[in-house]
Amino acid sequence: AASADLVPLAPAAFGGRRLPHCAVGHQWSSCSSLAGGAAAVAAALGSTRGRLLQSAGCGHRGRSLAQRRASEAALPDLLLGAKRNLLFDDGPRANLVDALRFRDLLCLAFLVWGLLLAGLNVGGAFGMSIASEDYERVLVAGLFFGSLSSSSGVLQALSDSDLPDRRPGLAAEARLVGFYAAWGLATVWLSARLGAGLGGAAGVPALPIGLEVLDVPVCVLCVGVFLLGAAGPLLTLARHGEAPSGELTSLEAYRMLGLAACGLPGALYVVDAASFALGGATWWGRVAEQWPAQRPCEQTTLLCGALAVEACMLLHRLGREGVLRFRGEAVPAGVVLCVMLTLVPTAAQIYWHRSEISLWEFYFV
Questions:
Q1: How far apart are CA 152 and CA 190, in angstroms?
Q2: Residue 263, exposed/middle/buried by CB under 10 A (0-12, 13-18, 19+)?
Q3: Contacts by residues 46-50 (CB-CB < 8 Å, ≥ 24 positions apart)
Q4: What pLDDT score does 82 carry?
Q5: Alpha carbon 79 to chain centroid distance?
């Protein structure tokens, strides 16, 4: 009844933009779009939360109570502020200093370590003499910084009240932040596990026999995380679609493609995790004995994957806050960082130790 008193607003009142669908699939045609107009209706009429949503387009007659409640939950957290950047990339801008949080500082420390790792591997590929003990210390530092950065991402996803929204799939911000932090932790754990008890990986001691039974379930979890890291964004895009026929804005679809590319290295790590689950520490000991440089090589490539995801997520956070625009700034910067921190050191590591490693044979030892 309340919606009958509301006057439809012109698209200009909403910044000239339209969301493709409301939370239950109704197109935003007869009831206009979202952010500015919903706020205008609320201010002009002193409406309640429900009336605001009705004026925005989710007050259609004949809808069930469950559908109306789903729509109510979907909209308000996306109306104004930095969240608009996740939908349209045209929200308020911010400067870098104001946008940085403690979680970002931990990430930056990890990325600075990644530049050191890249420099060492490029130097080694070009003949620079680097003591193996020094390289092991660098790997240990990487495990430390990587675990801190990814763990802080998980804590942020669980505790930051500004993150939750009702966007579908991995377009939901809290789900996205938590998942890719878990992806980073999976690579760090696998890197540490491959060095445990073998005199490397920063002197990580061998696991007690009783704890080795956890290798199989944890590796299976890692396989699932790595696969979803690459496939999850694509599944979100395939299932929910892009405007005008789907639920995702064009920017969200663009971000899903970028996240899929960022998680692509995980497809390679699936083989490592599955092989360790099947062969265990006994298999990995045989590999290390036959190819002495295989362990630091695999650990390096895993940590490079963690660097790629952490760099992409830092840029994502800066895009959300308005420091960068996703199109033309954050995504191209992510490509550059992934090349610098992942592809370059991995290729250099393989070339550097080419006579002491195996590309595929070690999986079958």
A1: 18
A2: buried
A3: 47/2, 49/76, 50/2
A4: 64
A5: 23
CB contact burial 180-192 (16+ within 10 A = b; e otherwise) = bbbbbbbbbbbbb
The string over 92-101, giving b where at least 16 C-beta atoms fall within 10 Å of a residue's C-beta and e elsewhere, is: eebeeeebbe
Among 23-37, 191-205, 237-251, the range of highest mean pLDDT: 237-251
140-191 pLDDT, tens digit per residue, is 999 999 999 999 999 999 999 989 998 999 999 999 999 999 999 999 999 9
Three-state secondary structure of the chain? CHHHHCCCCCHHHHCCCCCCECCCCCECCCCCCCHHHHHHHHHHHCCCHHHHHHHHHHCCCCCCHHHHHHHHHHCHHHCCCCHHHHHCCCCCCCCHHHHCCHHHHHHHHHHHHHHHHHHHHHHHHCCCCCCHHHHHHHHHHHHHHHHHHHHHHHHHHHHCCCCCCCCCHHHCHHHHHHHHHHHHHHHHHHHHHHHCCCCCHHHCCCCCHHHHHHHHHHHHHHHHHHHHHHHHHHHHHHHHCECCCCCECHHHHHHHHHHHHHCCCHHHHHHHHHHHHHHHHHHHHHHHHHCCCHHHHHHHHHHHHHHHHHHHHHHHHHHHHCCCCHHHHHHHHHHHHHHHHHHHHHHHHHHHCCCCCCCCHHHHC
User: Quick check: 249 and 170 in contact, CB under 8 A?
Assistant: no
Tell me the C-alpha distance between 99 and 201, whole Å: 34
Which residue reads 């599955």 in tokens? Answer: 274
Note whether 216 and 206 are within 8 A (CB). Answer: no
pLDDT by residue (tens digit) across 265-319? Answer: 788 899 999 999 999 888 998 998 999 899 999 999 999 999 999 999 999 999 9
Q: How far apart are CA 341 and CA 349, in angstroms?
A: 12
Angstrom distance (rounded) from CA 290 to CA 362:
9
Interatomic CA distance for residues 14 and 33, integer angstroms:
6
